[in-house]
C-alpha cells in the first residue's frame, strides 16, 4: 500500500528544471488467509478442511450432513494428518453423549464382522471408496451398544480433552453400533473464501480474505490465481480518513 499521503520528491531534470515525482499506493505482495470457511480447520498437508459437528447424529445421518457441505466423514491418509486432528481444540461443548475428558467422533470407516464364534473377528473398510492411500485403523475396542444381529459396525475416533494427552497423540478406535448418536468429523477439500467469508466456486472471480479489498482473483483449485489489483487515490479535500477494510476505494473522512 505504500504511503497514505502523496510523497513529493524533487529532482533535477534537463535544463535545470525541477521534476516532481508522486508515489501513491505502491502495490505490495499479499499474504492470503483463505482456504476454509469459518469454523473449519485447514491442514496444508492434505489441502483439506476439517470440522467437528456437535449435534449428536447416528452414522447415516452424519454421512448426509457431511455431504450437504460438499464433504464426507473424515478418513486419513497418513499419521501426520491424524496427529493434526488429535492436536486441535475443537471448541466442544458439554453434551449428554460425551464424557468431559474424552471425545468420540464418527469417522469414515466401518468394521465388517466375519466371525462371531469365540471372539469377534473382522476387518476395517473405508465406508465410501475414495483415495487408495487411505490407511485403515488398528484393531478396535468394541462398543457397549452392539447388537448380535449387526454385521457392520461404524468407526468412532476417541481423542482426549486434556492438553497433555492431546499433544501426545493418545487416541483409541471404537467399533460402535451405527445407530448410536455421536459427534462426527467432516472433511472437505480446501476452497476459495472471499473477504466476506463467502465460499467461491471454481473459476469465479473473488476478493480473497486478507488486507487488500481492491484485489480481484480467479478461484482455481482452492487458490486465488491471476490476481489484479486496483489502486485508489486518496479522497480529495480530506486530511484524515479511514479506509474500509472490506470495500475497495471506500473511505470515511475523519476531519471535523
Automatic annotation (TrEMBL):
Pfam families: Lectin_C
PROSITE patterns from the UniProt entry: C_TYPE_LECTIN_2 (PS50041)
InterPro entries given in the database record: C-type_lectin-like, C-type_lectin-like/link_sf, CTDL_fold, DGCR2-like_CTLD, IDD, VWF_dom
Protein name, as recorded: IDD protein
CDD domains associated with the record: CLECT_DGCR2_like
Any single Gene Ontology cellular-component annotation: membrane
Domain C-type lectin: 45-187
Organism lineage: Eukaryota, Metazoa, Chordata, Craniata, Vertebrata
Domain of life: Eukaryota
